Amino acid sequence: MAEADARGANAPEITVSELSGALKRAIEDRFGYVRVRGEISGYRGPHSSGHAYFSLKDANARLDAVIWRTAFQRLRVKPEEGLEVVATGRLTTFPGKSSYQIVIEALELAGVGALMALLEARRKKLAAEGLFDAARKRKVPFLPMVVGVVTSPTGAVIRDILHRLADRFPVPVVVWPVRVQGETSAAEVAAAIDGFNALRPGGAAARPDVLIVARGGGSLEDLMSFNDEAVVRAAARSAIPVIAAVGHETDWTLLDHAADLRAPTPTAAAEFAVPVRADLLAALADLDARCRGAIGRFALRFRADLRALSRALPGGEAIIAQPRQRLDRAAETLVARVRSGVDQRALRAAGLARRLARHSPRALLAGQRERVRGLIGRLARLGPTLIERPRRAADAAGRAFARETAALARRRGERSEALARLAARMARAVGEREENRRVRLAAAAQMLDAVSYHGVLERGFALVRDESNRPLRRAAEINAAEPLRIEFSDGVVAAVAEGRAPAPSGASNRAAPDAAPARPKRARPRDGSEGQGTLF
After folding, report:
1. Sheet arrangement for strand 173-177
2. How many Å apart are CA 36 and CA 43, to the nearest integer?
3. Minimal CA–CA distance to 485: which of 499, 501, 465, 463?
4. How far is CA 485 from CA 333, 398, 477, 532, in A?
5. How confident is the model at residue 526 (pLDDT cuts 50, 70, 90)?
6. Which of 139, 189, 262, 485 is the most buried (most CB within 10 A)?
7. What is the pTM of this model?
């Protein structure tokens, strides 16, 4: 114990940073570059800075790992959760956490089994999104005008495709050169597919009607560019039908599932893209021959039918017989219709003549005579109070009659003197009738004056009325203090009843002053007037 304390007391003091730096140098000098195999764990994608942080683990240990942004962009195999890989990099420490970690500079899959597992997981993911559905795949056009090829411009694949297209059906070919292997291969293939779809129909660069994505055979690692998710999605969203021709017949990639058509080889893809021109020419020649034969047979049959119809066609007389008969019947019908029209016009003219007769001057004169008779009758029926009205009516009738008589005299000069005499007689008759009515009215006025109560008032009598202007005939109808209106011949005097005067001697006392009978109600005149008193 004493020795240990002595050694501790003699050891030099160092800081935490110095110790961490010493450990860092010791580990980096001891291990340097290493290759570590393990399973990726805790990967959540690249950080916002572009760096990637995760761990490598096996059954017994765990190692922190980091990939800087520049190295991450160069990786052929991108890290994925649960993927077994072999990482190459430098082992170092991180003093801030007192931990050690590996800075990865290269990443590769740990064997074919891991690669197949990765492809199967990717295939299931893309299939779940519907990118491999047969319903979304388009039919390759039968005869494309332009063929687009996405492949390497220097390999044997492009020569085989061009040679096969020239043999079958020469069409314009547009080649988009890409790398078919390497780190940037997948990005170039996806950009080529999108680039062909971005071309406008009828633009400066011809837009293909079908795309061929081709590559020769190789190992699974060589074909990994065509298993990339970006390439599969580009083929799935392509508006131009895509033919996948990657590897040999036994080679399958995820692009084969997403493409509209898979060809076992690049040569077969060229055969699928265009038909055989010679076969088309032979088919056209056969169709042309069949068409000519059909036209000839149709002409022969038409000629035979025409001869048969010409034999069945009747002669000229038979053809015009029925139209001639219809013409004769139409002529007879026309004559009958003309006669019927003439008769109808005659009947209409007779009707118009009768109407003109009713409006002749004689008829008008007879109507005026009847009107005069009616006016005379109306004058006879009118009461004495409407003498002025008959006079105005008679004057108006006389003026109207004079106007009508003048008009008739202008139309018929020979009737003027008779109408003037008739007017004079009418005026004398109206004057005599008016004079008679005036005499009768004067007699009635004298009779009215004779029976009026005003004459009685002139003889010294008076008419007593109450507040409502109702005449009072008996003293019993008057109450004490009741306002009265007494009418004399020269005016009306207001008075108030003071009471009943003492009865003269000999008068019978039939009613006591305080037992005056109730005032009888008097009906108002029907004409709405207040009514005038009467002594009768």
Report:
1. 173-177, 147-151, 210-215, 242-246, 261-262
2. 17
3. 465
4. 101, 52, 14, 13
5. very low
6. 189
7. 0.41
